[in-house]
């Protein structure tokens, strides 16, 4: 190992099958200040580091990265910036569960209540004695119901536009069977929806792109099964914490979910999150419970002589 080689300390985990690569040391110095500003610095000056960590040949389209940061709020056990194969996430439910399980694995926190700072706000996290983690997400809400969008090759598709820490288009009425064998068709359908939303200027608040598309169907072991297309075209192996938050905000808006009622959301690979809502003022707050397992501790090696050192990018 020469002095030119750079080491990046990571711990990998998965939450319901969806991987999280937690960067503990060797990441870029993003300075101090609010996390949204540090995300912009990350994007503008160190985006190749994002790609080096999660993209091939070290990672894959599915890997979500989490960069450990000094929190601004002293009551927080950690600050975290989530990123993926194409960019940065506001919040990440499965990733937060993975981060808490990893910090517990390292002995940096124990069972009880903790606070984690993310670019979209502080979230609460309870590590239970049995290893499960409950995330208390930021407020979620439905922006618009049953929005029609003309999707080339599929006709008019209706869905709800909702926020759960990321922007989602949630589709209940479709003819697709939600099973692993159909992942290619499901990906093609949801990608076409995403492109149609963009083409028709259908966005979240402040013109924010809707970069997650979520389909729902019946489940044999939960209240619902989903398929979630993530921003970089990978599908979420977990039931998606922010997607489940968006879903429960819509159910509440439709009068189909009461405060405290538990909703179980199954993913396309069969993993399950439990969710419920609490109302504070006129805001809907979600709790999402799931489990994560650490599956690797490693030093990534960044060799400047490697032509794919910073990952394969489109
Ligand atoms: O669990 O919120 C989530 C998530 C977002 C993207 C992938 N997983």
Tell me what the structure shows.
This protein has helices at about 35-45, 45-55, 95-105, 185-200, 240-255; strands at about 5-15, 20-25, 65-70, 80-85, 90, 110-120, 120-125, 135-150, 155-165, 165-170, 210-215, 225-230, 265, 270-280, 285-290, 290-300. The protein has 5 helices and 16 strands. Strands 8-9-10-11-12-13-14-15 form an 8-stranded mixed barrel. The chain is of the alpha+beta class. Helix content is about 20%, strand content about 40%. The structure holds pyrrole-2-carboxylate (PYC). The site of pyrrole-2-carboxylate has 13 residues, from helix 3 and helix 5.
- Report the β-strand fraction as a percent range: 35-45%
Alpha-beta content class: alpha+beta
Tally of DSSP helical segments: 5
Shape label: globular
Order of helices and strands: EEHHEEEHEEEEEHEEHEEEE
Bound molecules: pyrrole-2-carboxylate
């Amino acid at each position: 190992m020469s002095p030119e080689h750079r080491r990046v300390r990571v711990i990998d985990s998965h939450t319901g099958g969806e991987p999280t690569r937690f960067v503990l040391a060797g990441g870029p110095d993003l300075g101090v200040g609010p996390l949204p500003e540090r995300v912009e610095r990350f994007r503008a000056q160190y985006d190749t580091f994002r790609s080096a960590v999660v993209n091939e040949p070290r990672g894959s389209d599915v890997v979500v990265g989490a960069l450990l940061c000094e929190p601004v709020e002293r009551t927080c056990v950690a600050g975290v910036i989530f990123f993926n194969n194409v960019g940065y996430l506001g919040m990440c439910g499965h990733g937060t569960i993975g981060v808490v399980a990893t910090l517990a694995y390292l002995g940096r926190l124990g069972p009880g209540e903790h606070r984690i700072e993310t670019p979209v706000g502080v979230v609460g996290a309870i590590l239970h004695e049995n290893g499960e983690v409950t995330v208390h997400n930021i407020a979620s809400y439905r922006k618009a119901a049953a929005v029609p969008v003309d999707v080339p090759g599929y006709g008019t598709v209706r869905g709800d536009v909702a926020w759960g820490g990321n922007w989602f288009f949630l589709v209940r009425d479709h003819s697709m069977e939600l099973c692993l064998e159909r992942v290619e068709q499901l990906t093609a359908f949801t990608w076409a929806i995403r492109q149609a939303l963009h083409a028709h200027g259908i966005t979240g608040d402040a013109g924010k792109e809707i970069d997650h598309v979520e389909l729902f169907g019946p489940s044999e072991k939960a209240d619902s099964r989903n398929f979630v297309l993530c921003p970089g075209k990978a599908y979420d192996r977990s039931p998606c914490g922010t997607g489940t938050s968006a879903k429960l905000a819509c159910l509440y808006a439709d009068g189909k979910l009461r405060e405290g009622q538990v909703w179980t959301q199954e993913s396309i690979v069969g993993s399950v999150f439990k969710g419920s809502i609490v109302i504070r003022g006129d805001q809907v707050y979600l709790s999402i419970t799931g489990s994560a397992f650490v599956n690797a501790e490693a030093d990534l090696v960044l060799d400047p002589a490697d032509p794919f050192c910073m990952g394969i990018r489109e």
